[in-house]
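Shipment paperwork, digital attachment
Item: protein structure file
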Amino acid sequence: METHVSDFRKARAFAVIFARALAILVFFLIVKLYLLSWYVWNQGFDPLNTIPGYLTPLIVGMDIGVSCAIFLFYLGVHIIAGPVLKSFGKTVTAAVIFIVHFVTVSLVSLSAKINQIYGVPLDIEHFREAGIERFSEVWKVVFVLDSILAYLNPDVVILFIIGCALYWLVPRYLSSAVPRVFRLKQGLAVWGVTAMVMVLLPTITYSSLVGRYTYGLKTNVLINILRSYANNWVHRTPGAYDLEDFDAKEIIADLRQDLTGTSRTRVWDHVSLHAEEWLPATDLQHLQGAARDFNVVLIVLESTSVEHLDAQSSPNISRLVERGLSFGNYFTASTNSFESLYTIFYSDYIVSLGAPLSHVYQGPLPQPSLSRVFSEAKYDTGLFQTSWLAFLNTGFLWEDQRLDTIKGGEDFKKEGGRTWKF
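Attachment content:
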C-alpha cells in the first residue's frame, strides 16, 4: 500500500511538472495567435502568406521544441534536487520552475510589443542597446526601466497576466488526469520521446521554413535571444562594438581613390541633396533625346555590387546596358534592402524612424515613386520582385503607385517559377 501511494505521489509530481511546461507552450501559442490576428486585422496583411498551407502548422514547431526542453529541465531539477537537498528539494524545484515561467512570460510578452514595432521578435541587440553587455550585467536593467515601461501598453499587460495565470490554471486541470496516462515506470520512454521532439521538430521547422519571411512568427523568442547572443556576444572580439570617431568624407574619398584612381569632387561633398543651393552642378543636356522610344528597365540586385557584374557573370544585364544609357555615378543611400529600395524608387533618404513605414504612415506613402511618375507620363508600368512582397514589407512601397502589373515571389511560386530565398 505504501509503495502504491509513493508511486502515485511521484506520478502526480511528474504530472505537475508536465503541466507547468505545457502552460508555457499554451502561452507561446496564445501570443503567436494574438500577433497573427494583429497583423491580419490591424495591419491588413497575412504575415504567413509566404508559407504554403500545409506548412503553416510548423510555425509552432520551435515553440513545441522549446517547451520540451523546458520540461526536461524541470524534470532534471526535480530528480536532482530531491536526493541532494533532501527536505528542501521540493521547495527549490518549485522556486526554479516559477522563476523560469515568470522570466519566460515576461520576455515573450515584451517581445510581442517589439514585434509590432519592428516586425521582428526580441533579441539580444535590444539588451545591448540598453548598455547590458553580458548576462552578468542584467542588473543594469534598472537604469532603463523608463524604456521598458514605454512598451507596457494594455496588450502587453494582459498577455503577462494571462501567462502568469496559466502557471496555476493548467496544472490545476491536468495534474489529476496526467498520472493516469503517464506512469513513473515509463520515465525513460518519456525522456526519450521528449528529447526526440525537442531536437527533430525545430530542425524540421527550420529546414522547411528557411527563406520564408514571417515577421518572426516562425521562430521562438527564447531561441531568437540565444541565437542572437551567440552571434553578437560569443563570436565577437572584445570591443567589436565600441564606438570611435571617424571622418566619413575621408573614408569615402579613400574608397573612391582605391576603386577609380581619382579623388575628384563627388556628390557626397555637398551638404544636402534636398536644398537646391547644394545640388551638384550636373549637366545632362548632351543626353537630351538619347533615350527616345526606349523602355525604362530598372533592375535591383540584392547584396550584389556593380563591380562584380560583367558579360560573363550577368550576360543578360550586360546586353541591356550595351543597348541603353549607362549612368556610372549612381549610388544608393543605404546598405539595407528596404531603405535602399525607398531611396532608388522615391529619390529620397529615409531616416531611422524606429518602426516600419507602414506603421508610421498607416496608409500608402504620400510622395510619388518612379512608377507613378512614369505612369503619369503615359508609360505602361510593371514591377516584378523575386522575393515575396511580404519580405520586409517591401510591398508597402508599391501601394497606390499606379503600377499596371505587380508580381512578387508568391505569384512566381504559384506559377511554378523559382523565387529568391534568404
